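Thought: the user wants the 3D structure for the chain below. I'll pass the sequence to the structure tool as-is, report back what it returns, then summarize two notable features.
Action: structure_tool
Action Input:
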Amino acid sequence: MKQKTALISVYNKEGITDFAKELVFLGWKIISSGGTAKHLSDAGILVTDVAEITGMPAILSHRVVTLHPKIHGGLLALNTLEHLAELEKYSIPYIDLVCCDLYPLEEEIAKHTPSASGTSPYVGGGREGVLEKTDIGGPTMLRSGAKGGRIVICDSVDRTKVLEWLKNGEPDREEFLNNLAAKAEAMISRYCAISAEYHSAGKYKNIFGKKVLECAYGENAYQAPVSLYRIHGGGKDPLAIINWQLVAGSPLSYNNICDVDRMMQTMTHIGAGFEKNFGKIPYIAIGAKHGNACGAGISQERFLREFPQEPLLEAIRKMLLGDLRAIFGGSVMLNFNVDEKIAEELIHKYAGENRRLLDIVAAPSFSAEAIEILSRKKGKCRLLANPAILKAGLSSLDDSKRFRYVRGGFMEQPNYTFVPKIDPLLISPLAGGEDANDVLADVILAWAVGCTSNSNTITLTKDGQLLGNGVGQQDRVGAAKLAIFRADEASEFKAQQEKNVVPKADLNGAVAYSDSFFPFPDAPEVLINRGIKTIFATSGSVNDDKIIELCKQKGVNLIMLPDAEARGFYQH
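Observation:
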């Protein structure tokens, strides 16, 4: 049997010696060049230098080493009598495997990323370094190997897989080689796209991803098929969708994935807001419907002093009471572990004789008893676990670029990462005897929920609880009225269940957040007339002075930050 040949040329030498030794043990011949050849030779591995095959040393400051017909001919030749005869005629070895990584172009470009001031990195001394770290020979060898149907290794994690495959007799050879080739082509495509983006100063942009999940259908049944793709490096984010473990229930649907993503935004914004303003993160429970929070609750310090054994239950009860009707069939996310007691609360509290049906419960972990309690027939309740959501705060905000398809193209923008720092002194003079920090906690909760809900939004909170979320409205008055309506509806529904007198929601002393400025005083007046005592909004309206004067006259706290800094629009 003819001895097989492997061409190995890597920038990162870690682990390459072990790989080469295994190939030699299997009877393979090794070809290499430059630093890789020396590294393998120093390890006692017999290596044939590329220069011995090409008859030429590396030239042009090592810019041309493997770009030669005697290398690429060995990678591109077909296993036919005609091609094999031609290889023999010109003394070209048939190369069966190419293992190659690329110069760290992306890392070099990262050294010259745009600064916050907007200074362009695409001019000056950085370009020379980028050009020197732009690999030509590596991508060319990989593409030649892919086209030639060779074993192509562009990722170090595949070396072990290839060795095992060789030892097992090369099962499903065509599919195995095709998958390796596809990976190499994708990696090189992205590599070239990064270079294009850099040299065009961002004029050219590409999105690369790998399919990690296939859903039965999309938002609606007729929208099929649907796939989740992981962007390059996306798996390194602890809170990436693919890092949530499905511990019970059916596979995630398109809508499930969107809900989890939206709830993570709300959860991390609440955590970040409290961490920035209070230096610690409370226990948080979020209930959502169609991505928007319909209930949210936090456990506050004063409650912990009164009921130190039940801070988790406090957060859940507040979340459920935000809207007992909407939470039915909804999704829940918690930043604390779920045991039997927590599971019972989620399913039975305020549910009367019935069992509350939930579509998703996401938390750091679940006990075996909790899984049994929360599970539904046919896997209708998906239980998702990820320890990274435990007390997630400032460092857990998603800071990756966000993309959105529009007809004929897509848009890119920075993520939603603004977190306000609010001075309690802005609250205490008008707080009506309430503790300024308790009011501030409600401000942060209202902001975090409102700025991660579909705009336009006005959000109402009180005592660490979401009371009403008026999302997706075309005007501020409508958003204010909807928030109040939802608070009243939630209160009425609870009263009906408990067979009590039907009251309106108690909004006296509540906090209102508006995700942008008020164009007129009419919306603040609607809020104030229902007892709201603190309003957090942005400035930028031609009528700011009128709104400030109205709040002064009514004895209402008005916290305003510039709209250019603090506007909270989300998911237009």
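Final Answer: Structure generated. The chain has four domains: 5-117+126-199, 209-241, 245-396, 420-566. Residues 115-124 have pLDDT under 50 and may be disordered.
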